[in-house]
Amino acid sequence: MPSTLDLRRRIRSVKNAAQITKAMQMVAAAKMRKAQAAAVAGRPYQEMLTRVLAAIKGRVEPSSHELLAVRPVRRELMLIFSTDKGLCGPLNTNLFRELTGTDRDKTEFVVMGRKAVQYIARTRQNLAADFALKDTVHYADVRPIARFASDKFISGEIDQVRVLYPKFVNTLTQQPVLRNLLPIPAEELDLEGDTNRGEFLFEPDAQGVLGAILPHYMAFQLYQMALNTRASEHSARMVAMKNATDNAKDLIKDLTLEYNKVRQQNITTELLEITTAQLAVG
User: Fold this and answer.
1) DSSP structure class, residue 87
2) Catalytic residue positions, numbered
């Protein structure tokens, strides 16, 4: 049975840990609100871009742009958005589980986030590039990533580009998503029920607008994925730290109860010893 001194030390150490996790929870909550607002704010613009491309699609040949070219997949480029730090629950574990069936012989990886770098190194897969993203992501930060991927696709080195990222659903739910980026999937631009399709006028022509807007559309897709990653990371970390704080509080209650029992037992033992000694003397 542990002594009262050992129990006091454990209670003190758990209280210190609870203070740390509580502080990390508050920091993550503050960052989460900003990241969630940024992720949600870009969705209307993304939807409008998709509607514009859907309107162009009906006026040009689907294969008229090199980013739309569909060919047999001999080599693939996989982009992975992960977190830089841990302590965010099973977010990264669930993310990397989606790569279980990947053919490593024909796949190159481009990663954003130190956890993805560590995963690729640990599994000994082919790392083509590693891009660092700031905690607050800006559109300019993802443009080099988009340019790197599109250059490889246009040159013919890569026949398909896919992206793996954690989609922010809500504070408690972050969903791993593995989706095609290049060639831009036709189903993304298939908006048959869009009544706004006839409202767009293109200058100088639809083909010229298509060539200008497709690279921007691709880069903005990556930007939204990066924002989703940050929102998912801070949400998952806040929930994980809240759970850790609650568990620490429960552990403190259990240790305090055990401490009181041991202390009461020691007092009872001392009283019995004193009583026994008095009876022996008297």
Assistant:
1) -
2) 88
Domain spanning 4-24+242-281, CATH class: mainly alpha
Give the Å distances, CA to CA, from 138 to 12, 80, 97, 161.
43, 17, 28, 22
User: Tokens 């770098």 map to which residue?
Assistant: 117
Q: Go through the chain and tell me how many residues it has.
A: 282
Task: Give pLDDT tens digits for 31-90.
Answer: 888 888 888 888 888 888 888 777 776 676 666 677 777 888 899 999 999 988 888 888
Q: Does domain 42-240 have CATH number 3.40.1380.10?
A: yes
- In the chain, where do the E strands start and end? 76-81, 107-112, 127-131, 160-170, 173-182
Q: Which residue type, as a one-letter code, is found at position 53?
A: L
Q: Cβ distance 21 to 250 under 8 Å?
A: no
b/e 259-272 (16+ beta carbons within 10 angstroms → b): beebeeeeeeeeee
Nearest to 217 by CA among 177, 179, 188, 187: 188
User: What is the phi/psi pair of residue 217, to 5°?
Assistant: -60, -45
The conformational region for residue 16 under phi > 0 = left, psi -120 to 50 = alpha, else beta, is: alpha
- Dist CA 224 CA 188 (whole Å): 15
Please answer whether residues 56 and 198 qualify as being in contact, where contact means their C-beta atoms are separated by less than 8 angstroms: no
Helices 43-57 and 4-41, packing angle to 10 deg: 40
Residue spans per domain, the chain: 4-24+242-281, 42-240
Give just the sign of the alpha carbon dihedral 238, 130, 135, 118: positive
Please determine, for residue 201, whether its predicted confidence score (pLDDT) is greater than 80.
no
Q: Which residues pair with 167 in a beta bridge?
A: 175
Please, where are the H alpha helices in 156-197?
none
Residue 234 pLDDT > 50, yes or no? yes
In the prediction, which pLDDT does 191 show?
47
Residue type, 11: I
